[in-house]
Amino acid sequence: MEQAQMPDCYRHPGVETGIRCTRCERPICHACMVDASVGFQCPQCVRDGSGTGHSRTANQPRTIAGGRITAGHPHLVTNALIGLNVLVFVLGQISPALIDEMVLIGFAFDSDLHRVVGVADGEWYRLATSVFLHQEIWHIAGNMLLLWLLGGTLEEELGRVRYLTLYLLSGLAGSALTYLIAAENQGSLGASGAIYGLLGASVVLMRRLKRDLRPILALVAFNLVITFARDGIAWEAHIGGLVAGVIIAYAMVGGARERRALLQWTACSLVFALSLVTVVLRTVALS
C-alpha cells in the first residue's frame, strides 16, 4: 500500500505538513501555526483579522526564522532604508562637505594637509555612515533597486528585527574588510556591502524554502561580474557583505527550531566580533 503524500505548506513550498488552517483550510507547517480557540490558523488569517475569537488569545504568529509577523506594512523596514539612503544622497548633493565627513577612509590628511582624518584617527563612525552614502545617481539607483527587489521577501520571512540586523551587520562586515585592505588614502562609500549581504541571504532562504535557485544565483553572478569587471568598485565591501549575509541567514533559517535563537545570535555576535577585531587590528597597524 502506498503512503499518501502530504501537501506542502502554502507559505513554504517544499515543507510537507498534515496541518490545515481552521479558517481558510490551507496547509500550514509548524513555523506558520498560530494557536486559536479551536485548532490552528495561518498568519494570513491572523493578519487579516478573519479568525474567530482569537485576536486576544492567539500566540503571536512567527516567520520561518522565528520573527514576529506584524499586521500591515510588511515592508516597513525596507521602505525606511530606501528612504534614509535617498535622504542622505540628496543631502550629499546639496552639501558635498557631508560626503567628506561620512565617507569611509582609513587614514589620510585633510584638504589642508594639517589634520589626519579617518577611522585610524578615531573616526569609527565612518564604518557605519559610509553604508548610507552615495555620490553618483547610478550607484544609488542600482543599490536601491536591489534593496527593493530583495528586501521585501527577506523582511517577510525573517521578521523586521532579524532583517534589519542582517542588513546592518552585512554593511559593517563590508566596511571592515574594505578598511582592512583598501581604505588607506582612498575613500569608499555605498550600501553595496549591505546589499550583497541580502543577496547571500536570499540564496540561503530560497534553498531553505526549496524554490528555484537559478534566478537568484544568476543575479549574484551578474553582480559579481560587474564587481570585478569595472574599475573603481570596492570589491572588498561586496565580498565582506556577501559572506556575512550567508553566515547570518544560514543561522536564521537553517538551524533546528529548538536551538534557533541561540544559533542566530551566536552567528550575529560572531560577525560583529570579527568585524570589530578586524577594525582594531588594522587601526593598530596604521598607528
Describe this structure in words.
- With 287 residues, this protein is mostly helical.
- The protein has a domain of 187 residues: Rhomboid-like fold (Up-down Bundle), CATH 1.20.1540.
- The strands form 2 sheets. A two-stranded antiparallel sheet has the order 1-2. Strands 3-4 form a two-stranded antiparallel sheet.
- Helix 2 packs antiparallel against helix 5 and helix 6 packs parallel to helix 10.
- The chain starts with 33 loop residues before the first strand and ends with a helix.
- About 3% of the residues have low confidence.
Beta-strand share of residues: under 5%
The computed structural class is mainly alpha
Shape: elongated
What is the tally of beta strands? Answer: 4
The CATH class of the domain at 100-286 turns out to be Mainly Alpha
Order of helices and strands: EEHHHEEHHHHHHH
Helix content: 55-70%
Strand-helix topology:
Elements (H helix, E strand, L loop, with lengths): L33 E2 L4 E2 L1 H6 L27 H19 L2 H6 L5 E2 L6 E2 L8 H4 L7 H22 L1 H22 L10 H17 L5 H16 L5 H19 L6 H27 L1
Helix pairs in contact: 2-5, 5-6, 5-7, 6-7, 6-9, 6-10, 7-8, 7-9, 9-10
Keywords:
elongated, Rhomboid-like fold, mainly alpha, two-stranded antiparallel ribbon, 287 residues, 10 helices
Short description:
The protein is an all-alpha fold and 287 residues long. It has ten helices and four strands.
